[in-house]
């Protein structure tokens, strides 16, 4: 299932807030790498990917992880 840009952005934001509840996503530039900016460890990132997969109904393979580095990347991946 392909999401609209707005739906993809909301899904990514919701998933990030489930992993890092106190994250200030409004202060996070669209091109900022999540793992660095939000200090996500590998388990956090896997949980994030699982939330995106479940929320979008789209299978996300390890080969896709490079497409999930920033908000811009995630929105393009989920809405493309």
SSE order and pairing:
Blueprint: H1 5-19, H2 34-37, H3 42-56, H4 71-79
Helix pairs in contact: 1-3, 1-4
Helix count from the secondary structure assignment: 4
Proportion of beta-strand residues? under 5%
Helix share, percent: 40-55%
| Computed Rg | 11 Å
What class, by secondary structure content?
mainly alpha
- The global form is globular
- Total count of strands: 0
Oligomer: single chain
Distance between the termini: 10 Å
H/E element sequence: HHHH
Mean pLDDT across the residues is 95
Biggest beta sheet attributes: none
The low-pLDDT segments are none
Structural key phrases:
80 residues; 54% helix; 0% strand
Describe the model.
- This protein is an all-alpha fold.
- It has helices at 5-19, 34-37, 42-56, 71-79.
- It is built from four helices and no strands.
- The protein is globular.
- The model has no long low-confidence stretch (mean pLDDT 95).
